[in-house]
Design brief:
mainly alpha; 4 helices
Length: 145
C-alpha cells in the first residue's frame, strides 16, 4: 500500500497519548516508522516470532545496540516496545508470531476496494443506446409542415 491515512490529530488519540506517555516522542516516531513498514509489507504484517526477526526490527527502528556486539539490549528494548504497543491496542500478534495493526489492515481493505471499484469505471451503457462522446444522441425529428 503506497499510502495510508494519518489523521492530523493522531497524537490526541488515547492510544497515541498512552504511547507517548510510555515511550516518549522517540516511541511515537518509531510507531509511525513501524506503520510505514507495515503498509509496505505483504499482508501488512511483519515477522516477529524469533530473535532474528526481533533483531531485524530493532535495527530498523534504531534501538540502541542493534548491529553491535551487545544485541541483547536492542532485542530487549524492541520486545518491550512491541509488547507495549500490543498492550495499548495499536498492534496485535498473529498466529505465526508476527505482528500487525488491525487498523492498517482495515484501511488497506478499504482503499483496495475503492481502487478496484474505481477501475471498473462509471455506469454501464444501456443496451441499444447510441452515444456521441459523453452525450446521448437524440433521434432526429422531421420538421412538421
Amino acid at each position: 500500500m503506497a499510502f495510508f491515512s494519518h489523521d492530523s490529530h493522531a497524537a490526541s488519540d488515547i492510544k497515541c497519548r498512552r504511547l507517548i506517555w510510555r515511550f516518549g516522542m522517540d516511541g511515537y516516531g518509531r510507531w509511525w516508522l513501524l506503520c510505514e513498514l507495515l503498509a509496505a509489507a505483504e499482508g501488512h504484517s511483519l515477522p516477529f516470532g524469533d530473535d532474528e526477526d526481533a533483531l531485524i526490527l530493532a535495527e530498523t527502528l534504531r534501538f540502541s545496540g542493534a548491529g553491535s556486539s551487545d544485541e541483547s539490549i536492542a532485542l530487549d528494548e524492541c520486545r518491550k516496545f512491541v509488547e507495549g504497543l500490543v498492550d495499548i491496542g495499536l498492534l496485535s500478534v498473529i498466529p505465526d508470531g508476527g505482528i500487525e495493526s488491525e487498523r492498517m489492515t482495515r484501511n488497506a481493505e478499504y482503499f483496495g476496494k475503492n481502487r478496484a471499484n474505481g477501475a471498473k469505471g462509471g455506469r454501464p451503457k444501456k443496451k441499444g443506446s447510441e452515444t456521441d462522446g459523453c452525450r446521448q444522441r437524440k433521434p432526429e425529428r422531421k420538421p412538421s409542415v
